[in-house]
Amino acid sequence: MPTKPVFFWKWLADPECSKQAAFFVLYSVIATMAFSISLFEITSGIFIGLSLISFFRCKRWKILKDPMLLLVLIYATANLISLTQTDYLAASLRGEAKIMKQVLLFFSAFYIVDSESKFNKLIGCYTFVAIFVGLD
Question: What is the b/e burial string over 38-74, where b = at least 16 CB atoms within 10 angstroms of the residue's CB?
Answer without folding.
Answer: eebeebbebbbebbbbbbebeeeeeeeeeeebeebee
